[in-house]
Design brief:
2 domains, 30% helix
Length: 253
């Protein structure tokens, strides 16, 4: 039941969640509000009102109403804190977002961090790409190794690291260069639109859905072809060596 926490390696997030669980209180700033949403959506997929809760706090409280469950979760978070090896870097967003570059997050946590999942909404999300128009930010959720069991032939894209800062990525299979979305990607440097990459090696890790490594922002380098369009992106922050070895050779099978 706590599999959504086994990958968490952001000290800031762990510290806040532990402090909140010891003494629940209203968020004192925008970052805390978003981190509280990330905690709620680590338990649930639907917004509070859909599940009969007044707010995020009530949902969290209900999930942890048994003392032993709350203690068990705090033990998991303390353990994660004791095992930290990632040296996170700050994100470059001009808006508030608690994500730290090179830390790991699942889809719900990412959506809550961008305020797409929050107190009042939790829209359906199944795509590997998402545009947050209010933030002028596109995010790409990338699976490096794709198995035919999990992906249809039309989604067996070739996504891989060329080197520590260049990443080859393919758009969705129906995309043409002239489409507004692809044009937005190509001209992101001129328009100030942000592109962020999230990568995981496999869809599953054991019995659990794997989390993504947040690679930070990237700039357009080149594109070619259509249906899908192949892109090369230049990451602002180099891919960590431990992930690079996997991302470099993880071309779709």
């Amino acid at each position: 039941k706590f599999s959504s926490f086994f990958h968490i390696d952001s000290k800031r997030l762990l510290d806040y969640w532990l402090a909140y669980l010891k003494m629940p209180k209203e968020a004192s700033n925008e970052t805390e509000r978003l981190m509280l949403g990330m905690l709620y959506y680590s338990f649930y997929k639907k917004k509070p009102a859909q599940l009969g809760f007044k707010d995020l706090h009530e949902g969290i409280k209900d999930f942890l109403k048994e003392d032993f469950v709350k203690e068990e979760l705090m033990d998991v978070l303390r353990y994660q804190l004791s095992q930290l090896t990632v040296l996170p870097e700050a994100n470059e967003y001009p808006f508030t977002c608690p994500l730290e570059v090179h830390c790991h997050y699942n889809v719900n946590q990412i959506m809550a961090a961008f305020d797409y999942f929050n107190q009042d909404q939790s829209p359906e999300f199944r795509e590997g790409v998402k545009y947050f128009a209010d933030k002028k930010t596109d995010i790409f959720l990338i699976n490096l190794n794709k198995s035919e069991k999990d992906f249809s032939p039309s989604t067996m894209y070739e996504d891989y690291a060329i080197n520590a800062q260049l990443f080859h990525w393919q758009s969705q299979s129906q995309d043409r260069p002239a489409s507004p979305k692809i044009q937005r990607y190509i001209h992101q440097g001129e328009t100030g639109n942000l592109i962020s990459l999230f990568v995981r090696e496999f869809k599953k890790q054991g019995n659990y859905t794997a989390a993504y490594t947040f690679l930070g922002n990237a700039d357009y380098v080149s594109s070619a072809g259509e249906r899908p369009v192949s892109f090369v992106w230049h990451l602002h922050q180099a891919i960590p060596a431990s992930l690079l070895a996997k991302a470099n050779k993880a071309i779709a099978l």
